[in-house]
Amino acid sequence: MENTDLNQTGEMAAMLFCFPHLQGSCPRTLRLSVIRVAMYAFMLTTILMTVCGNLLVIISISHFRQLHSPTNVIILSLAMVDCSLGCIIMPFSMVRSVEGCWYLGKHFCKVHSSLDMMISSTSIMHLCLVSVDRYWAICQPLQYRTKVTTFKVILCIGIIWLFSFIFSFGVVFSEAVSAGLDSLVHPCVGSCALICNKQWGVTASLVTFFIPAAIMISLYFKILHVARKHARVMNDRLAKVTCHELKNQTSEQRERKAAKTLAIVMGVFLLCWLPFFITTVMDPFINFMTPVNVFDSLVWFGYFNSTCNPVIYAFFYPHFRKAFKIVLAKTLGFKTTSNILVT
After folding, report:
1. CA–CA separation, 118 vs 12, rounded Å?
2. Rounded CA gap, 52 and 258, in Å?
3. Domains of the chain, start order
4. What is the rounded distance in angstroms from the CA atom of residue 230 to the CA atom of residue 228?
5. Alpha-carbon span 131 to 256, nearest angstrom
6. pTM of the model
7. pLDDT tens track for 239-275
8. What are the residues whose beta carbons fall under 8 Å from the beta carbon of 342, sequence distance 6 or more?
């Protein structure tokens, strides 16, 4: 018995706690200094890329009138959402992930969790809105200019922001997500994790991810089908004035470009968010056996989608690339040949 007590005392002494002076404090995550430095370097780089990339989109769309269109209003709002994630959410999540502790109190933990859910779901819903906009532009081109206006787009964006705010803050502050988990989960002082019961794990994931993702996938497959159909029709018309070989090359290039763009859009989106939401749904059914480090990694995978969004929705378009070059040249003090963006 004495040896056992001595061993336990030695283990307690070797263990570092988030709040050593408080009883029931969470233990700090023990990591080698090299690993901690590497984690901070990677996460800081991701944060800087997220903020700077989305700021570049915001400045470009705001500065150039040629980029003022309903589609770009959605991309502008998406960039603002993703930039907010990089400025407001990711720095606090970085410290929590590396240190394994939350030092800012229970109330700010709820605010952070609510904002995290709100901004992440708003970003996902913006991606869904982009897919709806592209569907109308490609599949209903004659009705697009009259039915899709800047006012309607701003109204939809406002509804998305309002819905995400009410849903996220309502769910977290009502503590409905953790109802019935008292016997399974025993939070310690210094933890900040949003733990969902079975009902809300499924409901929240459906509302914030699976339903928008299903809409995106179905619309993008429809867009791809219509794009291929349009390419065949255009090449049938071009066949009267061009050779057969040129027609085949044009059709193949258009179909390849459309398929590549859509594959990148859906592939990056699903790669970043699908593992996290699958884990969120499954975790309550396996008595919350998912390790904290795994969950943190999946959260940062989801955050990384906001880092990729400027590349996917802006850098792929020539007029955005030219706008970025002009903005960067002015920022760095280089002379530009033109301040006018030709699209």
Report:
1. 39
2. 28
3. 33-332 (1.20.1070.10)
4. 5
5. 19
6. 0.84
7. 555 555 444 445 455 555 555 666 787 889 889 999 9
8. 66, 322
